[in-house]
# Entry
Amino acid sequence: MNAAAGRAARLFVDAALGAGGEIRLADERVHYLRHVLRLEPGAAVDLFNGRDGEWRSSLAAVTKGHATLAIEKQLRPQAPGPDLWLAFAPIKRARIDSVAEKATELGVAALLPVATQHTAVERVNIERLRAIAVEAAEQCERLSVPEVRAPVTLGKLLAEWPPRRRLLLCAEAGNAQPIAEVLQSHVNDAGAPWAVMIGPEGGFARSELDALVKLPFVMPVGLGPRILRADTAALAALACWQAVLGDGQQRPPHRSSA
# Structure
């Protein structure tokens, strides 16, 4: 969440944003502004809420437990991001934290933890993943924070799956086309809803793979000849999708501290 040199700090807030408004912060956010960034009254802070775009504010007042931000002007209007989900079997803490962070940076709209037969992790700290997603969104200049859903079983996920949403199944076994070939064959469907699914560290069970590949919205894809860790596979697949069908052709916004 640290602001880069020459840039204003960025904060995600829940409140509505508009010229002339004020945002009141408390607790850890005030600590961050005062003791981490060491901001003084008048310092610029950019705000976003996933609905109203990005707004420049100034730090109007700081006390021990509270801070007030005065909203001044809109920097960017809200724009829709790629409609891309990541469904993944939970993995060990450090790696699942990394998946949440990097998937946010790669533009996913939703993170869906899924329990499979070989999933070894029984508990997922959803609030922690949400906090990581917020921090990553603040750092990477996106205008929204991905939704982090409660864990579900693979069976429940598939039973409730929206049939229009194509699902790239990263399959470590069985017949699968290279991911680049599959994506290139759908370049005319770039605006359609998509998802990427990654199995657990032990891989999908044979019965799970057999059931998945029979579904009309599932597309089994391969990620090359090497066996990738679950977190590596997730990021590789997301990067491929963004490069071909997502917003990989765009550039980061020009920013200044003014």
